[in-house]
From TrEMBL:
EC number, UniProt record: 2.7.13.3
Domain Histidine kinase: 251-466
SMART domains listed in its UniProt record: HAMP (SM00304), HATPase_c (SM00387), HisKA (SM00388)
Catalyzed reaction equations: ATP + protein L-histidine = ADP + protein N-phospho-L-histidine
Organism placement in taxonomy: Bacteria, Bacillati, Bacillota, Bacilli, Bacillales
Positions of transmembrane segments: 12-37, 167-190
Protein name: histidine kinase
Length: 480
């Protein structure tokens, strides 16, 4: 007995489909073979009745119907084995018969009226006296177009029905064997599906309990193979995400501890007192600097949280990309000067590029991109920022450096949250993840191309503001 589940459903569905199919085939086969046998018998008797009719017509022309031995001659000439030949009059009374036991009353079966009407009559039924199944074929014997007598053949169907019954039993046995084989096959098929599903279910249950090192083993095909591969990939990604999260917690803890240690140390030192104004100023400057660093870390985490929860609100308006990038360069100029890095802005457009977006958030995007370029560039190198039109509707900003570059393995993960190419470089690993989501909120795209040891180029594509939108925006600004 197959236990309740998908396996039983598969077997049951196969069984029902095959059973219904075999049942219909069995009915069609039985009817077809019965029709074939019955038609063969009918055609055989009908042909002999035609010959008897022709024989009768031949002797009619010679007035042989008056010969009292005429019917006896017909019976002897056209008699069939295991078949009774009868000559009837229009009333259905037997005038002559090949059977020694003649009926004592007129025959009124449906074949007789049909023959009287000039047609070939056929009747299948049971003999009133014996109950035996028979077939009767009657044909009119006409004189000058008028039916005078009827030639009637009657044969027993008992042996034929017995053969048909045997054939029916045989076909049922064959159908039963086929149904049994199909059931066995469906059980095997069901097991081939259910066993992998049970295996996948068990491993999935382990994953649900936190055992992400569990893997689905087995070379499964088609959708089951795809499902197993997907679950294994999911577990692998969860393990990787957990590792990245752990690295993030470790990194952010370090990032928070360093400024807090500086703030706490200088606070305690300044509390003791006894320092000259210059030393006090240096200490307060360090406290302010580390406080700004903490604020930056917290704001980065808050921005990421807002983006994850779709709570980031943008103040959309026209943004001049050249002016925005110039402001960005001024903000990072001091940091670039410390490493003697040259920043260069190239505008390859004839007209100002105006995009629709939130100026502060777009500035945050390019600050992060340029800041990363500075962080991972060599001293006395250069960073080039290029503005150009990708097409009529899009502008592209490229930030290219000649820094350390990114490996091919890290390049596919660099925009993932918490991921850091260099864990010693500091930060939360959220910068590029936030940058990508901010660009996507502006209906743009960000692409990173890099070669290890050669440099990195970050391309940001943004939609250009339509002239109608620009005019509408300027009009609303004028009203204000």
């Amino acid at each position: 007995m197959i236990k309740k589940g998908i396996g039983r459903q598969i077997v049951l569905h196969y069984f029902i489909v095959v059973f219904v199919t075999l049942f219909m085939v069995e009915i069609i086969f039985t009817l077809a073979i019965r029709m074939y046998y019955y038609d063969t018998i009918y055609n055989h008797m009908s042909n002999h009745s035609i010959w008897a009719s022709d024989y009768f017509q031949k002797f009619v022309r010679l007035n042989a119907e008056r010969d009292p031995d005429y019917f006896t001659e017909m019976l002897r000439t056209f008699e069939l084995d295991n078949t009774e030949l009868m000559i009837l009059d229009r009333k259905g009374e037997v005038k002559a018969s090949s059977n020694a036991f003649q009926a004592d009353k007129a025959i009124q079966t449906s074949d007789v009226p049909q023959a009287i009407a000039g047609n070939v009559g056929k009747w299948i039924g049971r003999q009133p006296s014996t109950g035996e199944p028979v077939m009767a074929v009657s044909r009119p014997l006409q004189i000058q177009g008028e039916t005078r007598y009827i030639v009637r053949y009657v044969t027993s169907l008992e042996s034929i029905n017995a053969k048909l019954l045997n054939l029916t039993f045989l076909s049922i046995a064959v159908s039963g064997a086929v149904l049994a084989l199909v059931t066995l096959f469906s059980i095997g098929l069901a097991n081939s599906i259910v066993k992998p599903i049970n295996n996948i279910r068990d491993v999935s249950a382990q994953m649900a309990r936190g055992k992400f090192d569990a893997r689905i083993k087995g070379n499964y095909k088609y959708e089951l193979g795809e499902l197993a591969a997907t679950l294994n990939y999911m577990a692998q990604e969860i393990v990787r995400s957990n590792q990245i999260k752990d690295d993030f917690i470790s990194s952010i803890s370090h990032e928070l501890r360093t400024p807090l240690t500086g703030i706490k140390g200088w606070s305690e030192t300044l509390t003791i007192g006894g320092f000259d104004p210059e030393e006090t100023k240096i200490g307060m400057g360090i406290i302010a600097k580390e406080t700004d660093r903490l604020i930056g870390l917290v704001e980065e985490i808050l921005d990421f949280s807002k983006l994850q929860q779709n709570e980031m609100k943008l103040v959309i308006g026209p943004v001049n990309m050249k002016e925005l990038l110039q402001e960005t360069m001024l903000n990072v100029w001091a940091k670039a000067e410390q490493k003697h890095i040259q920043l260069k802005l190239d505008d390859n457009t004839e007209e100002p590029v105006i995009v629709s977006g939130d100026a502060n958030r777009l500035k945050q995007v390019f600050l992060n991109v340029v800041d990363n370029a500075i962080k991972f560039s060599h001293e006395q190198s250069w960073i080039r920022i290029v503005i150009s039109r990708k097409n009529q509707y899009q502008a592209i900003v490229q930030v290219a450096d000649t820094g350390i570059g990114i490996s091919e393995e890290s390049l596919s993960k660099v925009k993932d949250r918490f991921y850091q190419v260099n864990h010693q470089g500091g930060g939360t690993g959220l910068g590029l993840a936030i940058t990508q989501q901010l660009v996507e909120l502006h209906h743009g795209e960000i692409d990173i191309a890099s070669e290890l040891g050669v440099g990195t180029t970050v391309s940001v594509t943004l939609p250009i503001m339509e002239p109608e939108e620009l005019e509408q925006s300027e009009g609303e600004t004028g009203k204000l």
